[in-house]
Amino acid sequence: MSIEIVFETHALTEDNEAGIATGWLPGRLSLRGRENAVAMGHRRRSAGIAAVFCSDLRRSVETAELAFAHSGIPVLLDWRLRECDFGTLNGAPGDRVKAVRTEHIDRPFPGGESHRQAVRRTTGLLSDLPSRWDGQRVMLIGHLATYRALEHVTTGRSLEDIVADDFAWRPEGWSYRLGQDAQGPTPPTRSMR
């Protein structure tokens, strides 16, 4: 029993273009981001996706709305796919958040959460997927925290290594496969596309 997961980050935002770490703030897609979201829909609408699970932050919702409007594919919002809560650094310059990111693997950002808490939150959603979507292909639209959770769960790599890595956005997204056993998701395979 397994679930194929297609993952893409939300489309490009005004904050991304300005070098801002949006965190738990809503964010808004830029003109180029709206074009990215429409292109995502062209790539994914006929890809056999049974459902789209989307962060409830506005930039992700806007991405899903543009990509999957009138497609018949259900879009389900879930707060567990949110970005890491940077607390007092939500909306701060991205370089500032990036510079301290490894200090907050287990220690929460002031007024926020740690990377491990964000990964645990996303892992809860991954554990719930088999109850309804076993054997199917689903899509997740989220953030860097979503990517880190998927990498950690499917590869077994340490969160310390994943957080320390520089993230490179991929317009074609990522594919993962989750197996299911008594303990929850297991990391049998991971494929890049």
From TrEMBL:
This protein's UniProt keywords: Hydrolase
Name of a matching Pfam family: His_Phos_1
SMART domains (UniProt xref): PGAM
SUPFAM superfamilies hit by this protein: Phosphoglycerate mutase-like
PANTHER family: FRUCTOSE-2,6-BISPHOSPHATASE TIGAR
Protein name per Swiss-Prot or TrEMBL: Histidine phosphatase family protein
